[in-house]
Design a protein that fits this description.
The chain is of the alpha+beta class. The chain has one domain. The chain contains four helices and four strands; from the N terminus they run αβββαβαα. The strands form two sheets. A two-stranded parallel sheet has the order 1-4. A two-stranded antiparallel ribbon has the order 2-3. It starts with a helix and ends with a helix.
Length: about 120
Amino acid sequence: MRTLLKLAAMEEAQYDMLDRELGVPIYCFYSGGVPTAERLVYDSMSMIRGSEPRLETGDGDGTVNLRSLEACRRWMDVQQRHPVNVTYYPGVEHKALLHHHDLISDILSVTERVQ
C-alpha cells in the first residue's frame, strides 16, 4: 500500500508544473488514435512467475498513452498571459510524427511568426 501511495504522489508531482503560468507561449504537438499499451494484467499473483500477462490497450500514439500525451492541455485551464497552442494529429504513430508533413509545416509556421 505504501508503494502505491508513493507512486501516486510521484505522478501528482509530475503534473504540478502544469497547474501554473509559465510566462512563455506554449506549442504542444501530439498524435493519437493508435492502439497503445495501457497495462499488463496477471490473472493471479501466483501466475506472475513464468506466465504471460494479458495486454490491455487504449488510445495513444503506439508508444505513449493519450493521458500523458494530452498533459499539455492542462495549461489551457490555467490563466495564461501567453497563448497555449495545442495541435493534434490523429492516427499518426509516435516516431512517424517527427517526419509528418503537417507537423513540420506547423513548426515552420510557428518559427516564421516568432521571427
